[in-house]
């Protein structure tokens, strides 16, 4: 079987291709990539592990560097706390030495002798003299009711 039957001759191509011209210059200004075609991050867990290790390394390095500086600051804080505590204790001791039992008892007895008056009477804020008068009248009515003569 001759091949010329199946393969066309090389004289002319079957489909005429258009003439290709030089492509125009492409605009090289920056454009964001389309949001749909963003690929997922590869090895994201490895990146996280690496960052964690780096942070740990930096932390260890910082502790080694600042060990004595921080120890000094801690000691100073404790000293300040102790000084405040001692000052409070001294103040309490001075107050205890200044305590007078007789004066204390007299003050308590005075406060027992004082008459306690409410600031309001039947929900109204009134002067103390008026409140005193109303309470006195109320007590008198109560006494009259209790001391009624019985025939």
Question: What does it look like?
Answer:
This is Ribosomal protein mS38 C-terminal domain-containing protein. By secondary structure, this protein is mainly α. It has a domain at 37-98 and 105-136. It is 58% helix and 3% strand. A two-stranded antiparallel sheet has the order 1-2. 0% of the residues are buried. The mean pLDDT is 86.
Summarize the structure.
This is Ribosomal protein mS38 C-terminal domain-containing protein. The radius of gyration is 51 Å and the shape is elongated. With 151 residues, it is mostly helical.
For this entry, give a set of tags.
elongated; 151 residues; mainly alpha; 3 helices; two-stranded antiparallel sheet
* Uncertain regions spanning at least 5 consecutive residues: none
Strands, count = 2
Could you give the order of strands across the largest sheet? Answer: 1-2
Which oligomeric state applies? single chain
Q: Indicate the structural class.
A: mainly alpha
Largest sheet: 2 strands, antiparallel
Radius of gyration from the alpha-carbon trace, in angstroms: 51 Å
User: How does the overall form come out from the CA principal axes?
Assistant: elongated
Elements, N to C (H/E) = HHEEH
Beta-strand level of the residues, as a percent range?
Answer: under 5%
Proportion in helices: 55-70%
Helix tally equals 3
Mean pLDDT: 86
